[in-house]
Design brief:
This protein is α/β, with parallel strands linked by helices. The chain has 2 domains: 123 residues, Aspartate Aminotransferase, domain 1 (Alpha-Beta Complex), CATH 3.90.1150; 201 residues, 3-Layer(aba) Sandwich (Aspartate Aminotransferase, domain 2). Helix content is 40%, strand content 18%. It is built from 12 helices and 13 strands. A 7-stranded mixed β-sheet has the order 2-8-7-6-5-3-4, sandwiched between helices. A 4-stranded antiparallel β-sheet has the order 9-10-13-12. A two-stranded parallel sheet has the order 1-11. Strand 3, helix 5 and strand 4 form a beta-alpha-beta unit. Helix 3 runs parallel beside helix 9, helix 6 runs parallel beside helix 7 and helix 11 crosses helix 12. It is globular and about 60 Å long.
Amino acid sequence: MSLEHGGNINAAARRFGIPVQRWMDLSTGISPWSWPVPLVPQHIWQTLPYPDGELESAAADYYCCDRAAILGVPGSQYALQHIPALLRRGRVAIPRRGYAEHRLAWRQAGHQVVEYVDGAMLHDLVLAGRVDHALVINPNNPTAELLSSQQLQETHQRLGASGGWLVVDEAFADTGQDTSLASLCPVPGLIVYRSVGKFFGLAGIRLGFLLAPASLCAQLQSAMPPWSLSHPARWIGAAALRDRAWQEQQRQRLQRAGRQWLQFLRDAVPRLRFAATDLFASGAGEAAYCEALFQALARRAVLSRHFEAIAGYSVLRFGLPPAGVENVARLLREAVEECECESP
């Protein structure tokens, strides 16, 4: 089964008949500012990527976790796709609205999915013993809900008491490390996924990490093909993870841009209820209006991410604009005005 994702400009260009070069892509949560990749040494291109420990050590320092608890993978997508099959089959709590690959992976591995709407409902499910495992996207993509470290640790303890697992997808957590559980790893019953693509703006190198007990890391590693991570990805990833000065600059830049973007969207699209992380803002509203606004923006070569309707409501996600709010402001206002004129 293939799921729809953001960032597919080629498909949008075909669908709306607008050349690729004209599009502004707001459909992902990838930072518009990337870590500045230096010239990659020639020997990195010419030799096979046998692990030398540099990437894993840099990641362990960055995530403040034990070196034995970390495994580099070709994108956090790889880990989330394969980990459910390694866990005892049971009932897993999964957010009703969230990154859909999680649901697909757990179902394909034979688990029973139990949906929850928010953190309060998850707490009740775990407290009542109605689930064996729980998947939390923190912050959630696309709702932006952020659960506290305290709630997550309580959830982990309750699930672990009966041999269950808490799995936390922290792909968008780099600007808010105080809520991360990465530094707790490894502990029994806890799995954390991390991504280098979002915060570092390096989605193209396909690099992520599994943080988990060493035995589980070893299980996944044994199932991975040889040289699953390219040598350039390993080299670039290690350097980016060690660049603390750039990371601090990036956090400040994203936090500032995120606040500005959220305020602009709230003013420009009052019919949607917005919540945000530092990397994207999501507006929830009536399904018909979300669909109309998505279409109106696309006709202006602005690609947002439109999520399916649930109980009559949908969500539009807007990543940070690549060149500031000003360039997209006029187009967004035009699209909103068009939708208002067409509303009954």
